[in-house]
Amino acid sequence: MTLVPALNGSTFSPVGGAKVELDYPASVSLPGSGSLPTNDPTDPTTREALIDFSLYNGFVLFFDTDSSLQTSVAGVPFGLGAPYGFERARFDCAMGTALVPSAFTCAVTDESDTLGGGVSVAQRPACTVVLSAVP
């Protein structure tokens, strides 16, 4: 997932905290549900990991509802002057499952500034998802 600021500069930055939701289809799954462990982000077998390792110096929570992965971060501000690689997730699926990129959607569902104040929906970044196969 990548957070994408608006070209007109209206996206709030720096971000003090954010909750990002990745919705996924029933044809894939993440093992477990509820609060998921924060495993080694450098290990390619880790199911969900933040791309910016400095975010692990703050508060990180991965929560799976079996249809969406909700990731919350706070305590380490990050800028949104350009697209920001936020997270990667590794799903399971049956061999031969056809995955449609439009079935995976993401959004910043909550955001705060560095003082803990809320950021309006209009100032939040867009979010994009890219799928890739992993052997």
How does this model look, in words?
- The protein has 135 residues and is mostly beta strands.
- It has a single domain, classed as Sandwich (Immunoglobulin-like).
- Helices cover 0% and strands 38% of the residues.
- The strands form three sheets. Strands 3-5-6-2-9 form a five-stranded antiparallel β-sheet, with no helix packed on it. A three-stranded antiparallel β-sheet has the order 7-1-10, with no helix packed on it.
- A hairpin with a 3-residue loop joins β5 and β6 (68-78).
- The chain is globular and about 45 Å long.
- It starts with a strand and ends in a 7-residue tail after the last strand.
- The model has no long low-confidence stretch (mean pLDDT 94).
List keywords for this structure.
0% helix, mainly beta, 135 residues, 10 strands, Immunoglobulin-like, three-stranded antiparallel β-sheet
Low-confidence stretches: none
The CATH topology assignment is Immunoglobulin-like
Return the CATH class.
Mainly Beta
Helix residue percentage = under 10%
**DSSP strand content:** 35-45%
- For the biggest β-sheet, the strand order reads 3-5-6-2-9
Q: What average pLDDT do the residues reach?
A: 94
The geometry reads as globular
**H/I helix tally:** 0
- Main sheet specs: 5 strands, antiparallel
* Extended strand count: 10
